[in-house]
Structure formats: C-alpha cells, structure tokens
Design goal:
CATH superfamily of the largest domain in chain A: NAD(P)-binding Rossmann-like Domain
Mean pLDDT of chain A: 95
Largest interface: A-B, 41 and 41 residues
Largest sheet of chain A: 7 strands, mixed
Distance between the termini of chain A: 28 Å
Order of helices and strands of chain A: EEEHEEEEHEHEHEHEHEHEHEHE
Helix content of chain A: 25-40%
Number of strands of chain A: 15
Oligomer: homodimer
Amino acid sequence: MNQTRAVVLASRPVGEPGPESFRLEDRELPALADGQVLLRTIYLSLDPYMRGRMNASRSYAAPVEVDAVMEGGTVSEVLESRCDDLAPGDLVVAHAGWQTHAVMDGTAVRKVSVGSAPVSTALGVLGMPGFAAYAGLAEIGRVQPGETLVVAAASGAVGSAVGQIARIRGARTVGIAGGPRKVAWLTEIGFDVALDHRDPRFADRLADAVPGGIDVYFENVGGAVWDAVFPHLNDFARVPVCGLISQYNTTTAPPGPDRLPALMTAINVKRLVVRGFTQRDLLASHYEAFQREMTSWVAEGRVAYLEDVVDGLENAPRAFLGLLRGENFGKLVVRVGPEPTL
Amino acid sequence: MNQTRAVVLASRPVGEPGPESFRLEDRELPALADGQVLLRTIYLSLDPYMRGRMNASRSYAAPVEVDAVMEGGTVSEVLESRCDDLAPGDLVVAHAGWQTHAVMDGTAVRKVSVGSAPVSTALGVLGMPGFAAYAGLAEIGRVQPGETLVVAAASGAVGSAVGQIARIRGARTVGIAGGPRKVAWLTEIGFDVALDHRDPRFADRLADAVPGGIDVYFENVGGAVWDAVFPHLNDFARVPVCGLISQYNTTTAPPGPDRLPALMTAINVKRLVVRGFTQRDLLASHYEAFQREMTSWVAEGRVAYLEDVVDGLENAPRAFLGLLRGENFGKLVVRVGPEPTL
C-alpha cells in the first residue's frame, strides 16, 4: 500500500489562521484504478486563494473539509501509471494538494511544458498566477499603449507578471510592494515607478506617481492601497478584481464611514468597470495565447520572475501564514521532494 | 431681439435642493448666426441626472454655472432658420434647457423621428431614457433567456423600458416601485413580479421573488434597494450602473459599518461585473439598433410607456424636486408651449 505524508486542515480558522489550523499526518493512498497515476510531489504552490478554501462558506470553489488534505497545485513526477498517456518519470502539473504523494486521474493532470525554464515556473510565471495576470489584463484590464496601470503585491507571482505584461503592451506601470528590498526589485524588472506601501507618505507618493490618473488598477490586495488608488481612477478605468489578500482574514464589516456609496457614485460618474474573475473562468478564451506569448517572453528575458523556495512539506503551514502577512519575496513554492536527475 | 423665459440655477444646493435653488427670469437671445436656428420649446424633459449638474464638481459632464439656464432635453419647433437642413415648422429634439426659446446650432439638433408615437416620446421611451435602458442592457446587462432581472424605479422612464426590453429578451423580470399605484402598473405592463419598496417586509418579498438569484440588476437607485438586492446576486451577475437617485442629495459618507469590503469580496468571489455608463457613451455602438427595435416595439404595443405631463415652465422646479422624491408617475415632462396644429 502506498503512503503519503500530508498537511490536513485541522480546524477552520476564525480570522487569522495559525499553526493550529494545520496538522501533518501519514495516510494510506488507495490502490491505482484504471486510468490513474501515482504521483510524487516535487513542488507545491502556496497561494493566497487557499485562505478562502479554509472557510466553510462556498467561495468560487468548494471549501476544503476539516481533516481533508489542503488543496494546492503541484509539479509532480509520475511513479506508476495505469494511464496510456503517462509513463513513470513524466513530470506533470497536478492539483495534488499539500502532500508528498497522491493518486489522481490521468485526465486531471497535464505534462509540464515550460520550454527552457525551470519546472517550478509551471506553478508561477508560466502557471496559474502568470495566467491570472495575463488573462485578467486581456479580458478586463485591456491596457492600451500610453495608459497608466497600477498593481500592488507587485513583487508577488501575479503582480510582477501584471506589471511586466502591461509594460510589454506599452503602458506606464506603477508597482506597489512592502519594504525596500521588494521595491528595489520592481525597479530592476522595469516598473516605471515602484512604491512602498509602508511609507507613511504612501498615498501622496502614489498621487505624485500618477499625474495623468490611473487607467487600470489590477486589484489583488484591497485595503489601504485601494483607498490610495481610488481617487485617481480615470474615466473609463478598468479594475480587474483578482483577489483581496488584505481582506481574507476579516470576519465582520469594519466600522464606518461607509465607503460603498462613494464607490458606486464613482462607478456611475466615471463609468468604471469593476469586475471579478478567476483564472479558471478564462482558460478557454485566453490559455492558448498565454502559453505561446508568456513562454517566449520568459525565454527572451522580457518577463522576469522570482521564486521564494521553502524546503520541506512540514514547513508549508508556516510559509503559508507568512504569505498572508506579505513575508514572502517572489512566488512561494515548497520543495517537497527532489527534482529527478536526468 | 428675441426673448426667452428661462429657469436658471439661482444657487448651488447643499444636499436636497429647494425652490430657492431656481429662479425664473426673462432674457434676451442673441441674433441668429449662419447655421443657427431659433427654437420654441414644446416639451422639456426632467431627469434625475440634472441634480448632478447643479453641483460645482465635474460629473461626466460640466456643471451648470450659477445664473445659467438649467440644462435639459427638449422637443422644440423651429421658428427661424439660417441652416439649410431645417425649416420653420420642423420639430426637433434639442438640448435647449429649461426655457421657452433658444438659439442653437443646427448641427446640435435633430429632427424628431418617433413614427406614429406622440412627439413627447422623443424625450422618453424613444429618447434618452429609453436608449439608456436599451444600451445599458445590450452592452453590460446582456440578459439571457431564462435569467432573472431586477430593476428599481421601475415605473420611471428608464426602469419601465428596462423591464419590458428584458422581457422581450426572454428574462424573468422583477420591478420595484414606491406605492400601490405604481406597483399595479408594473403588473399591467408585464413585469413577472412587482414589489413596493415601502413595504416593511420588502427585503423578504424580494428574496421570495428571486428563488434562483439575480442575474442582472439594473442600478438606477442605490440605497435600501441595493442592500436588498446584493445578497441575491448570482455568480457572473451583471450590474449596469445607470444612476443612483437615492444618493444624489448626499453630501458626506454615511456612518458605518463600511460595506465596501463586502462588495469587493462579492465582486471577487462571484465574479460580478459592476460597470457604470451613460447613454451618451453608447450612442455610436447601439443607437441605430435602438431606434429600429424600440420604434417598432412601441408601435406594436410591446413596450408600454407612461408620461407624467406638467403644464408650464414655471412649474418645472417644483416638478423636478418631486422627481427627486419619487413623486412622479411615469416619464416626467413639462409642456412649455402648445404642439403646433397640423
């Protein structure tokens, strides 16, 4: 019988999760049925959306059940296969969760295709986060040459891709991140302006950085960044809402004043588009173009990326809690097992 | 020298305007230049958007200056013409304002085209409000057969058109209005459900009326109706934001709780589209289809309309203040002068 070591959801957090929200345990895997594969996890992706899955309420996907394995994307190696298309040794992208091994349907995985880039990028710039950036911009942001785009969490997996794609599309880009090290990297990778949201004069500095207003604000943060951005949105500005990491641990509506009427009035008067999306909804319409364009941009060095690699599945909970506090620097992945030697 | 009697903006209101916000006065009109026409106003349209023009701040259009003639759409008769395309006796739609006469460029007016309908409909169901309904639905609402649409101020010029167009498109329609007389009329013109927002159990009745949730909420009201609608928005619901009459007199952000984070979270999780528009922005893309479809729907009796006609320019301020309080029943127009006898 095959075994897996897994991080399971120990209890549902109220507000900020802690180490007690998770439990590491060994489990037996079911025997392989026809069409299935046994996978060994090499890299596990840690992403903000996972916080939503820890709640009981249905978000855009079903919640993780208490005592079930935490959900997550992985790069995995096929160890055994009862599936014609996959053979032992193949590397695949799967949604195998926070565990060392998994049994999955062959139809639920796809072979890694990252060109000359490291396989871990299949979880980052060439995977779900990179695609969220690409598709949100293509479908909703529709940034035009000469326009100004603002994105926060800009050193993260999604934000850094958003800024660099927008620059390729001819936009002026303003990136926001926390702390001097991240801000310096934003400048390195070509943001026109890089701002630190921890700066006490952040709102003023943002105002100075967008003298012509903001045409696209790619929203993946919310909170204080939104407040600073909001007054500068231009007529016909687009706001793709990809995520709201600053809100994920809130449990009740905050005290007033109530900012809803001002938002609705601005939407009305400025004819704003505020639209939520998940990358999954846009696969059919944008994935093929993403794979073609992004793979070549990365190969040509036009899109840079940064990975924050943590070793060992047992460190996944701590790394995830740090991610929710903005402590990671670059796309956060856990190296669960070694890459196969070729 | 030609004269006009005009309602001018006497002072900018703070909060709710009153009779003191307006002043009736006689003015001299300039002499006709080449390409201009002298117009006599027959009908003046009174619309909620005019409240925004009374403020100093730029909305989607420039404000009316203090002591300037209040802005407004009219059906007018050409009295004199120095323009090749227009002759005395022609009826035109113009933006001649709250006055009995006006001198305008011939290029700024267009001949009335309402088929067999009364000319006043060029300010209502076949004019700007009808077009706002049509274009907002076509461009943003995109209502599909079998979907549920909700609209408030549903006995008004825009709302009644929204509901009836959506029904023609195959949607289930829920109309909201204030008071039994308006609610009864909604049922007459074919809304599947008609609700009174003054009913103390309004929110519960709305919940009962939308067991499958809401796919399109056409927003022209805001306030308490929004609060009742919000929890029932389905995944991928569309919210065209056409107006917010309940907000037009507010001067400061209301007390908490702050509803903004809950809205942004819903936009994110439910992948909502919330988008503001003005009919003017959509003329190029939708006006031709509107004119063709709406004229025939009205002629065939498939789209009903109701006009609330007030006599005399001097009564325009009082009628407008009533409009802001929801006292009109149907499209509000002022009969400024007689229709020409044919």
